[in-house]
Automatic annotation (TrEMBL):
Residues 236-382 form the Acyl-CoA dehydrogenase/oxidase C-terminal domain. Its cofactor is FAD. This is glutaryl-CoA dehydrogenase (ETF). Pfam families: Acyl-CoA_dh_1, Acyl-CoA_dh_M, Acyl-CoA_dh_N. The keyword Transit peptide applies. Pathway: Amino-acid metabolism; lysine degradation; Amino-acid metabolism; tryptophan metabolism.
Length: 389
């Protein structure tokens, strides 16, 4: 029998407390019971069952789980990260839904909203009854959000918004959007309910990645909002960037789930596939691949746990998150690509999870800051010199 379990070869489970272990067990069971038997079909159809799954995720306390009050679970950062890992072991689209709901839609309302805004939106969002999205990226503004064209102007007591947002997870199905726009006083955040006149939500089709995820475009055409739709506590780019940092923290854990699922599928496959009279796992080249994958995932998980402990101690910086996001998404993608080779032709079949995770991770590498942007952030942190332009 193997001495090291593929799912946790360096026994990081032994470092978890009882609450963290309970989160891992509960989320892993949820994914097994409600996701794994269906996700290949969802991926092939380009579909995600938002209205069915959101209430279930809410019942488990997974939506905004790292926030306090208003129906939120108030868990530790590490528990949130571990939940993201287990969710993404099911599919990146599942973890993306939870990340967007909690870290990009609920977090800005929780941190920057008025008490009235928190009371109006957060309990329903925590329960999965209200779905949110985050509107920052634009058709011509991705890595450089300061160049956004969406703008808001005062008209009496109201705000009037014009512009568009692109590649918005949940954007086409959301009940409410947190939209960032340029004003005379700088960039501000606005709460835009679905159905507001002048606010259109469109579905983005023809994706080859994150297919089990809803993605939309938000169009604002003289969209009129009351004066109290603005988030009073957010001014400038620091508002949306702080939200992205929260989401990136979930990603640096989550990506490892996709990598782990690819790795364990490959280990199982080579242990049962016989060629030249012996299992593929008996070949030296196969074992070398397994060793490399084990090291990458183990190092990534140890890094994630360290950064999670820093966050719980209020010592985590955005530069730390950039290190984690860059390192762990790259490691997970390398593992998924290697796993794909180990399955041979079966590696491109949706009967196995590997190709689905591999193409999903191509998107994960890009969103919430591309690999290049995080490299520049790390370079600036080490040298003191900004090289973004």
């Amino acid at each position: 029998m193997p001495n090291l379990p593929a799912i946790d070869p360096i026994d990081l489970r032994s470092t978890l407390d009882d609450d963290e272990r309970a989160v891992v067990a509960a989320v892993r069971q949820l994914v097994k019971d409600q996701v794994l038997d269906h996700v290949e079909e969802w991926f092939e159809r380009g579909y995600f069952p938002v209205r069915e799954l959101a209430p279930e995720l809410g019942k488990m306390g997974l939506l905004g789980m790292h926030l306090d009050g208003y129906g939120c679970a108030g868990t530790s950062a590490v528990a949130y990260g571990l939940a993201c890992l287990e969710l993404e072991a099911g599919d990146s689209g599942l973890r993306s839904f939870v990340s967007v709901q909690g870290s990009l839609a609920m977090f800005p309302i929780h941190k920057y909203g008025s008490e009235e805004q928190r009371q109006q939106w957060l309990p329903g969002m925590a329960a999965g009854e209200i779905v949110g999205c985050f509107g920052l990226t634009e058709p011509d503004s991705g890595s450089d959000p300061a160049s956004m064209r969406t703008h808001a102007r005062r008209d009496g007591e109201d705000w009037v918004l014009n512009g568009s947002k692109m590649w918005i997870t949940n954007g086409n199905v959301a009940d409410v959007a947190v939209v960032w726009a340029r004003t005379e006083d700088g960039i501000r955040g606005f709460i835009v309910p679905a159905g507001t006149p002048g606010f259109e939500q469109r579905t983005i089709h023809h994706k080859m990645s994150l297919r089990a995820s809803e993605t939309g475009e938000l169009v604002l055409d003289n969209c009129r909002l009351p004066g109290d739709a603005m988030l009073p506590g957010a001014a400038g780019l620091s508002g949306p960037l702080s939200c992205l940092n929260e989401a990136r923290f979930g990603i640096l854990f989550g990506a490892l789930g996709a990598g782990r699922a690819s790795f364990t599928a490959a280990v199982d496959y080579v242990g049962n596939r016989t060629q030249f009279g012996k299992p593929l796992s008996a070949f030296q080249l196969t074992q070398h691949k397994i060793a490399e994958m084990t090291v990458k995932l183990s190092a990534g998980t140890a890094l994630a746990m360290h950064l999670g402990r820093l966050k719980d101690d209020h010592q985590l910086t955005s530069d730390h998150v950039s290190i984690g996001k860059l390192a762990n998404v790259r490691a997970a993608l390398d593992v998924a690509r290697t796993a794909r080779t180990m399955l041979g032709a079966n590696g491109i079949s949706l009967e196995y999870p590997v190709i689905r995770h591999m193409v999903n991770l191509e998107s994960v590498m890009t969103y919430e800051g591309t690999e290049e942007i995080h490299a520049l952030a790390i370079g600036r942190a080490i040298t003191g010199i900004a090289a973004f332009a």
